[in-house]
Request: fold
Amino acid sequence: MKNALNSSTLLLPLLLVVFSCSAPQKNIENTAPILSEDTKTDTSANVYRPVKEQFKPEVNKVSNVNSQSCSDGKVKLTSDFAAGRMDECKRTGENEYSIILVPENTPINSSPWYAFKIQAEQVTDITITMKVRGDKHRYPPKISRDGKSWQLQSYQQKGERLIMKVKASPQPVTIAAQEIINNQYYVNWAEELIEESAFTQSILGASTQGRPIYKIESRGENTNEWVVILGRQHPPEVTGALALFPFVETLLSNSELSKYFLRKYNVLVIPNINPDGVHAGNWRSNANGKDLNRDWNDFSQIETRLINDYLQGLVAQGQKIKFAVDFHSTKNDIFYTMPVDYGVESSYFVRHWLGELDRQMPNFNVVLRPGNNPNLGVSKQYFSDQFGVHAITYEMGDNTDRTKIKSIAYKSANILMINMLSDVDHEKE
Reply:
């Protein structure tokens, strides 16, 4: 997209601020703590500090239905923890194990998720062979020896088989398709975000299985316009979460730009829409086997219905939805947008915003993919049709460098705020 857009320089009147990214997120081997849980139940309702809640739903403490284990008495493979998954596991020889991954339903987007722990009575070299039933592998394995830092695990791909040689020891190690960001991680992150601030975290409602769906809000005294941030409709799309965190942190920071922005715009963040699917390690779906990002027409699922009801309630109170971003992952970095001629207000707003991002990041190629499919039931179409505004699906590549994901998020959030505060005419190219 370099030089493809003739975006004008965006100036923020009366505000001279020097912007710099916070310390960039470290690479996979040194990422910020991403905790895996050892318990059989999801503890996302049991926060470590009190949360401001509208109500506290009863949480159905279901152990992970996809948990399996296999052992020869000396070596054990288990997936009985939040976000754990290996649908079939068996010992096939001396220190050799086979894992089969099975989707929760078919047809389904090809996103085979797996996460399991390995432990041995003494240091033992083992071989693990993984296959996907009716599909192929998407995610190269990552390993964590402390539940916090992650690095790529070496492997071989032979046809449909993914083969790993791993050193098992009395200290458990976790192998997963991506870094594990479970439900409790979101609660802890939000609590740190809102600590000593005016932002609030509360429960929007309960998921299909009764898990809380949290929302974070920043409300100004003299504004009725809302920016909406959504995340984790699809459980394995972890790089979308890794982008959402710094993006939101930038919008809700103590920078002069953010303070100025939050005086004009309210922000609603629902970072984990599908807690049941995240807990179960689903490939795509919620607990009912439904793709939530195909349900924004029918609202057949409680998760999407809760959000629609809340947004419609805001509008009924005289509030206005101004813009929305939905974070996802796919094989490459891409921004799915609405066409400039679709009829939403500020037709060229997204092109101005992302065009400036493209200009300011010469080593990152910003790819826009405009599209319009009213029958598909995706969130960006919903926002455009229901509220007449732009919305985008912000996709980070599965294997995009984690430092790069963070720097893109910080830069895009800062440019977004400048764009929304500027006096540039977004109805013109």
